[in-house]
Here is the input.
Amino acid sequence: MTIAIYANELQQQVLTQKFTERYTVQFCNSFAALATCEASVYIDLYFDEHLQRLDKPHAWVLAQALTVTNEQLPTNYIRINGWYGLLQQPALQVCIHLAVNADAQALINNLGWKPLVCPDIVGLISARSIAMIINEAYFALAENVATKADIDIAMQLGTNYPFGPFDWSEKIGLQQIHQLLLALAATDDRYAPAPALIQALS
Here is the structure.
């Protein structure tokens, strides 16, 4: 099996450890490069940033498509949460078209994850919570509750999170957090991005 992957450096490190002993892996540095690859499986962990679909109807596409739902994607697309910290877990959050459910779950198992099938909603499950935690941390920072470092330490020690919210936002990519918050805020004002988070993007 050949897998073509468009991902950031941290995600590449995780997937290198996961796949290289069993599969042929090709990392791409752009969507255009991903689109020109010939592979059995494509993993696009930048989907939410470019929102372009691969024209690969006979291959599987695992896309970090947290800002859209299945009705906006072809049936060969499997929505996943590939954020750093979740990608290396034994279970992978997925959202699958019903018509290909069994085959898609078999693929996820074959890739070495246990599929955790989520409802077809924006953000799936964990990403909604993580984005809100990071957003609240930016509100706290703006209100001078504590420094970034202190907030990170407090969340790690107090909640046993693998990373503090600011450290996690850097590993995930603050732009991706912002995009998900905007998508969620379209139907729920509670997810409106904190002004300090928006300012941090500039």
Notes: The beta strands are 2-6, 24-28, 41-44, 60-63, 77-80, 91-95, 114-117.
